[in-house]
Design brief:
The chain is mainly α. 68% of the residues lie in helices and 0% in strands. The protein has one domain (3-23, 46-196). It has helices spanning 3-26, 58-73, 82-100, 103-112, 123-143, 145-163, 167-175, 179-196. It is globular, with a radius of gyration of 18 Å. The N and C termini lie far apart (57 Å). The site of zinc ion (ZN) has 6 residues, from loops. Residues 33, 35, 37, 49, 52-53 line the site of zinc ion.
Length: 199
């Protein structure tokens, strides 16, 4: 992106993030995890720190959002308009971040997915999700289409193997919840419980 385009984009991004933070604050979201411990990453999706610190396994699905936005937006509009496409990608991501924290979606997550303890993101986590999406978009741009698709598939597989959830599964479960998937995910929680049980 040329310098002439970078400055307006950064101004747009600052305003958009400020609006995201303000909206989430008005929605009653907390700034940071209630544990008040300032570690950056939380790797268990079953813990109360999930979606409350900066990075967690779902950060990778937000990175995937960026990959997908790149794949779709590259077919649209004049090629040099990277800044405009990035601005569109950020806008969609922020709208999703806000939607994800409405009581409607939170209830939906809690009732039909494994996210039983999901009470919405912290503001810090939500802004970090946006940065992951932005990073995903820029990464996709550097990688090109084929490697971006490959990276997307790899992230999906790694998430499925590690947390029994992924962007695809997340979308399926939100729209058409399948009992078979839910049972498989819950079995993962049971396994974890057995592993953590004192002997
Ligand atoms: Zn915490």
């Amino acid at each position: 992106m040329s310098r002439a385009r970078l400055v307006p984009f950064l101004i747009f991004l600052s305003c958009a993030v400020a609006l995201q933070i303000l909206t989430m604050w008005l929605m009653g979201r907390v700034w940071w995890c209630g544990c008040n411990e300032f570690f950056i990453a939380s790797w268990s999706i079953w813990s109360r720190h999930n979606s409350q610190h900066l990075i967690d396994p779902y950060s990778f699905s937000h990175l995937s959002h960026g990959l997908i936005f790149f794949l779709f937006l590259r077919w649209w509009g004049p090629r040099p308009n990277v800044d405009l496409k990035l601005a569109i990608a950020c806008t969609i991501e922020i709208v999703w971040e806000i939607a994800e924290n409405t009581s409607f979606i939170i209830e939906r997550y809690r009732s039909v997915t494994i996210s039983l303890d999901y009470f919405g993101d912290s503001i810090a986590n939500s802004v970090a999700d946006l940065i992951c999406c932005l990073a995903g978009y820029l990464l996709a741009q550097a990688l090109g289409v084929r490697r971006t698709i490959l990276l997307f598939i790899m992230i999906e597989i790694v998430l499925l193997l590690t947390i029994r959830d992924s962007l695809t599964i997340n979308v399926i479960m939100l729209l058409w919840p399948l009992q078979s998937i839910l049972r498989w995910q819950q079995a993962g929680l049971l396994e974890l419980g057995t592993m953590l049980m004192p002997t």
